[in-house]
Amino acid sequence: METRAKIITMVAAVTVVVVVVAVVTFLVRTAPRPQAPQAPQAAAPAPTTTTTPRLPLQPGVLAVKLDNVPAARPQTGLSAAATVYVEPVEGKATRLVALYTGKLPNVVGPVRSARETDVQLLAQYGKPVLAYSGSAPELDPVLRDAALVRAPAEELPRAYFRDGGRRMPHNLYVRPDRLPEAGRYRGHPPWQRGEPPSGGTADSAYRVAFGAATYDFTWSAEQERWLISLDGRPLVSTESGRVGAASVVVQRVEVHSGREIADVLGNLSPVAVTVGSGPASVLRDGKRFDGTWSRASATDPVRFTTGDGDELPLAEGPVWVLLAPR
């Protein structure tokens, strides 16, 4: 009986082993086979949306307020400007606003303070970066509320430096690459460009007097530029020599006293009104074209027309605009 029990036990054990092997084999055969890794699918391109602006957009603009009294000359970076505005300031003197687009010069200066004229003038450029050194306390709220990216020396000291070889306040310079990036802000191009209209007056020399500053423009057929002189001396920039412009615009504007801001001598700070209309003269290609300027609002670009109402475009190249009192 004992032998028979051992045999039964062995048969049961073998049966269990056979069943276990059968189960394992079934599971292995029926288990899902591993798949080869699949290449990641490229993300579907995001849907593109296009918006059409009311006017073509241009790259952002950097505007720098420049000193131009005798102690500030010669300036640096002046010839690299795409546009230079001459605006009246206290005591019938002038101050420059140099506008840069695209590639910026390494250094620009000497830099001086902002004026109330700048706010309305620069509004036609969208949201330009304005580099300047201080302003009257009464003007600070206006600058903060304006469509400008303020970049004053007092708030961005790493972008500015003093030239020890010149006396203050005519020795402050800015490094544009350390300012807020102008390319992020885009605005409307203010200038009409193209071939000149018919007519015009051959005029190889032109003078604009502000009282304490006199500008002379002499046409150079060889350079195809109006060479600029200030107070009887050639205007030069340290990086390029003689300064010239392809087009010169004499824009006659109304001037008023503004916010009763005065200099240390008590001279009131004038404000040049650049919205509205008035007489203008455009110098290009060795000729003078007399006509009219018009600007419907601060955010609109200025337009020039001939006496017959035809468009009066500017030549390709640097532009100087003199905001001359009527």
The global form is globular
**Which topology does CATH recognise?**
YerB-like fold
Q: For the record, what is the CATH homologous superfamily label? A: YerB-like
The main pleated sheet reads as: 12 strands, mixed
Number of domains: 1
Question: Over all CA atoms, what is the radius of gyration?
Answer: 36 Å
Q: Give the proportion of residues in helices.
A: 10-25%
SSE string: HEEEHEHEEEEEEEEEEEEEEEEE
The top level CATH class name = Alpha Beta
Number of strand elements: 21
From the N-terminal CA to the C-terminal CA, the straight-line distance is: 136 Å
Task: Provide the residue-averaged pLDDT.
Answer: 83
Secondary structure layout plus pairing:
Blueprint: H1 2-30, E1 62-66, E2 83-88, E3 94-100, H2 116-122, E4 129-132, H3 140-145, E5 149-152, E6 160-162, E7 172-174, E8 201-202, E9 205-209, E10 214-220, E11 225-230, E12 233-234, E13 236-237, E14 241-242, E15 244-245, E16 247-256, E17 271-273, E18 276-284, E19 287-295, E20 303-306, E21 319-325
Parallel strand pairs: 1-4, 2-21, 4-5, 16-21
Antiparallel strand pairs: 1-3, 2-3, 6-7, 8-19, 9-10, 10-11, 11-12, 11-15, 13-14, 16-17, 16-18, 18-19, 19-20
Please name the defining characteristics of this protein:
YerB-like fold, 5-stranded antiparallel β-sheet, 13% helix, 3 helices
3D architecture notes:
The chain is built from 3 helices and 21 strands. Strands 1, 2, 3, 4, 5, 8, 16, 17, 18, 19, 20 and 21 form a 12-stranded mixed sheet that branches. Strands 9, 10, 11, 12 and 15 form a 5-stranded antiparallel sheet that branches. A two-stranded antiparallel sheet has the order 6-7. The chain has helices spanning 2-30, 116-122, 140-145; strands at 62-66, 83-88, 94-100, 129-132, 149-152, 160-162, 172-174, 201-202, 205-209, 214-220, 225-230, 233-234, 236-237, 241-242, 244-245, 247-256, 271-273, 276-284, 287-295, 303-306, 319-325. By secondary structure, the protein is of the alpha+beta class.
